[in-house]
Structures are given as C-alpha cells and as structure tokens.
Amino acid sequence: MVPAARTLVMTGATRGIGLAAAREVLRRSPETHIVVLGRGSSAAEVLPGLQEISPHVSTVDVDLSSRTSIDAAGAQVEDRLDSGELPPLRGLVFNAGIHLSDALQATVDGYERTFAVNVMSTHQLLRQLHPHIQAPARIVVTVSDAHFGDLRHTAGTMPAPRWAIPEVSRPGAFRRSGSVRAGRRAYVTSKLGGVHLVHEWARLLPAGVDILAYNPSLVVGTGLAREAGGALPFLMSKIIPLVAVTSLVDTPVPAGSKLADVILGVTPAETGTYIHREKVVASSVESYDSDRERELWDWLETVSRTSC
C-alpha cells in the first residue's frame, strides 16, 4: 500500500541539523510535503537543493521575532491546507533557535529576542496550526541539554537558567543584561521554557497527536553560536570540532539523521517526553513543574489574545 500524502511544517530547516533532517525526511518519506518556514532569502537558497530530492517542498516567508509575521505565515499555511493545495497536516517541527551575545535585544513587539524566537514563536505557531493537525501526528520541539545549566551538561560554559514569567520575556531581565553571560542565561532559560511548553501542550493535545522535546546535544557546524559572543564561537568553530570524531559531539548530517528519526517515528517515545539524541531520558529536575508550565501557558495565551 502506498502511504498517504502528508504535510510537515518545519522552522529552522534552512541550515544545520534542520536542513540535514529535511533532506533525510524527503529521502525516506517521499509522500511527505515539507513546508519550510524561514526568512525569504535563506529559504530560497535551500529550496532548489531540497527539490532535487523531492518536488514536494515549498516555502513560506516568516520572521520568527515578529508576531505579525508569524500570524501571516500561519495564515498562509492554513489557507493552503483548507484549499486542499497541501495534503493533511501530520507533523510540525520547531527547530529554529537563536543564541545572542546579550539579553538586551528587543523584537518589534518589545520582547527579549531570544525568548521570543525560542519560546513564544513556537507557541504562537502551534496555537494557530494545531486545529489542522490530523492524527496520527508528531510535533517536535528542538531544545538543549544546556537547560540543565550544570557542569555535567555544559562543562561550565553555561550558567543556570533563571525562571520568572513574564520577566524573562523582557529585555534586561537578567543581572548585567548587556554581558555575554546574560545572553547565555537568556538562552538556557529559553530552552527550559521549551521543555515546559512541551509538557503543557502534551496535556492538552488530543490522543494520537504527540509532542516531544528533542535534544541534539552538542553539534558543531550549525551556526547557532555565531551571535553568541565571548569565546563560544571560537570554541564551536575551532576547538570542539577536534573532538567531533568522538561519541560526545555530532556534526549536522548525523544529528539531522537523528532528528529525522524522531520526526518519522523511528525513535519511539511517548508524548511529552524528552529525547536525548536517540533515546528517551529525563530532562532537568527543574523542568518538571506543572504550576510553572501552566503559568507559562496562561501568559502566552494572554499575549496571543492581546495581540489579536
């Protein structure tokens, strides 16, 4: 039996592990139509290469730091699904993320840019598109073991997260917010927020629609550290690649293959769980807080209503 056609919407598919995963999905699942949500120029650059693998690829322009842009991009996907131009929606992948050199940068809407892109955009798109999802389906949110903020998981390169909603959504929320360390704290805090978001959505989505947090762990060559400041870009580009041949570090192609395994259901996991590379493990102790998760959800819903 020929598998039924389906749509997969992806952010963060124009470089790094997301691009590698998109290629793998198209190779392994020719019935899948991937809609790449990304900046117009970046998406246009990768589209020809993806279409060499499969003609079932299209792009939608979006700025994930702008709520208006996200709303417009989601509406385009909705219209194409409603018209039958796209097959049924059976997957969402939120792989986009940023890591900045400070915690002072504001979006056009006034939110701290790291939190807006890494947490708020995920909720906004999922809120807009989840009514269109048909079971069985998988939603994957790329997070990071940096959310642990401890020596074991970050080798001392990252501070611990500092959670407070809505404070962490605002520029200048952390001590010495203009410093590189504050930028790193904003990043790990946003990744903790991503895990919280997965837990709360898992409680609310219908049966057969699973949502998972995926941690690729340390991956070199993704470009994520290019705006991080301090010594991190040097470490990621010059030092860490020296140990990339070990089991501790991945490059985009094998990491993308692992992400594709999660997207396609090759990696077994129950909804709401945290996948470290290829297996389900526990996320940080701090990440399991249902009150905090509901508080984040309620605040994001308030933002959505007041933005309409």
- What is the N-to-C succession of helices and strands? EHEHEHEHEHHEHHEEH
Task: Give the averaged pLDDT, no decimals.
Answer: 91
Helical amount among residues, as a percent range?
Answer: 40-55%
Hey, roughly how much beta strand do the residues contain?
15-25%
Report the CATH superfamily. NAD(P)-binding Rossmann-like Domain
User: What fold name goes in the CATH topology slot?
Assistant: Rossmann fold
CATH C-level name? Alpha Beta
Termini distance? 44 Å
- State the shape: globular
The CATH architecture is: 3-Layer(aba) Sandwich
- Quickly count the helices: 9
> If you compute it from the alpha carbons, what radius of gyration comes out, rounded to the nearest whole angstrom?
18 Å
Low-pLDDT sequence parts:
238-246
Strands in their spatial order, largest beta sheet: 3-2-1-4-5-6-7-8
Number of domains: 1
Q: Give the beta-strand count.
A: 8
Q: How many strands, which pairing sense, and closed or not: the largest β-sheet? A: 8 strands, mixed
